[in-house]
Every structure is written in structure tokens, then in C-alpha cells.
């Protein structure tokens, strides 16, 4: 009797999440100017900040550490390690933990052949979720009235040569009017 290996699809939406976080990062390059922008950023931050379940975190950590397990480690020690991993990653979104684990195992990480510690993955989760924290700060600043866009100076008229010269001299630039052609 043979058993078939059932392969689950990759975690749904991880690449979508990365794209949305990249869009959020891009949108935060300028201050939130309207209530609609504020509400959009707040909704994105809230949607992407939902924490992973403890069961999922423990399963993901077990999958990450499986190649590194030593056979003679007592089960009680592994359970204590699992509790430490859960404490380090609890509250983090599933997509961010997945991205951090994939980064650890990927070619851009020179330490990928070493067994990761809780702090290694937790630090990368922090990097992965930087845009969420930035978005939350922008929303709080908007709510406090700190990020209102500055009004543009009126540009109704063109400055005269004398006004431009006075501004240049006031800003410490040399007066070059003697060098001008008649």
C-alpha cells in the first residue's frame, strides 16, 4: 500500500502581501494629505498586522529547524525551545514570519547554512514589518494634526530682477549685477 504525498500550495498571498507592503512603503514617502489617504493607510496597516496563530508559528518554526535538529536532544528541551520561539514571534503577522524564514534560507543570507536563533528571525520580521510601523506613525501624526501639508507659496507673479538680486544677497550669494551685460 502506497501513500501519496499531498503537497499544499505555497502560503497564499505572500507575494501579494509583499507587493502591498511595497506599495504602502511607496505611498508613505509623502505626508498623508487627506482623510481618504489616512483611512487607506490605516486599513492597509490593520489588514497586514493580524498576528499569526500560535499553532501556525510553532509549525513554521518546526519546519525551519527540522534540518538542524539533533537526534539526541530530549523532547522536553525541544518544547522549551518551542516556547522561546513562540515568545519571540508571537504577535507577528504570518506573511512577515514567512518572509523572514525565506530570507534566512535564501541566497542573500550568508548565514543560511547555520541554525537560526529566535532573535535572527525576529529581527528580520522587524525589518519586514517596517512599513506597517511607519504607516501607523503617519496615521497617528495625521490624527494629531502634525502632518498637514504645508501650503505652497503663492506664485502669482514673476519676481523682478531687483527682487531676485535682493533675495540672492539676503541668502549670502554675491551680487553679480556688475557682471551683467548692458
Task: Give the SSE map.
Blueprint (H helix, E strand, L loop, with lengths): L13 H14 L7 H14 L5 H12 L9 H15 L4 H12 L12 H11 L1 H14 L17 H10 L12
Can you describe what's shown?
- Helix 2 (35-48) runs antiparallel to helix 7.
- This protein has 8 helices and no strands.
- The termini are far apart.
- The protein has 182 residues and is mostly helical.
- It is elongated, with a radius of gyration of 27 Å.
Low-confidence stretches: 1-12
Q: Indicate the overall shape.
A: elongated
Radius of gyration: 27 Å
Structural class determined from secondary elements: mainly alpha
Helix content: 55-70%
Distance between the termini: 101 Å
Quaternary structure type: single chain
SSE string, helix = H, strand = E? HHHHHHHH
- Overall mean pLDDT score? 82
Content of β-strand = under 5%
Number of helices: 8
Q: Please report the total strand number as a whole number.
A: 0
For the largest beta-sheet, the strand count, sense and barrel status come to: none
Question: What are the salient characteristics of this protein?
Answer:
182 residues; mainly alpha; disordered N terminus
Amino acid at each position: 500500500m502506497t501513500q501519496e504525498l499531498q503537497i499544499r500550495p505555497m502560503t497564499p498571498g505572500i507575494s501579494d502581501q509583499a507587493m502591498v507592503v511595497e506599495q504602502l512603503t511607496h505611498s508613505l514617502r509623502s505626508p498623508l494629505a487627506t482623510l481618504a489617504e489616512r483611512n487607506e493607510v490605516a486599513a492597509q496597516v490593520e489588514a497586514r498586522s493580524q498576528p499569526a496563530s500560535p499553532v501556525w508559528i510553532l509549525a513554521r518554526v518546526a519546519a525551519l529547524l527540522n534540518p538542524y535538529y539533533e537526534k539526541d536532544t530530549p523532547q522536553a528541551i525541544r518544547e522549551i525551545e518551542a516556547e522561546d520561539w513562540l515568545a519571540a514571534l508571537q504577535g507577528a503577522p504570518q506573511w512577515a514570519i514567512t518572509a523572514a524564514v525565506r530570507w534566512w534560507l535564501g541566497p542573500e543570507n550568508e548565514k543560511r547554512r547555520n541554525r537560526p536563533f529566535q532573535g535572527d528571525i525576529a529581527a528580520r520580521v522587524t525589518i519586514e514589518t517596517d512599513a506597517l510601523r511607519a504607516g501607523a506613525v503617519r496615521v497617528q501624526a495625521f490624527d494629531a494634526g502634525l502632518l498637514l501639508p504645508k501650503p505652497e507659496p503663492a506664485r502669482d507673479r514673476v519676481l523682478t530682477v531687483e527682487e531676485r538680486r535682493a533675495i540672492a544677497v539676503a541668502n549670502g550669494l554675491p551680487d553679480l549685477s556688475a557682471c551683467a551685460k548692458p
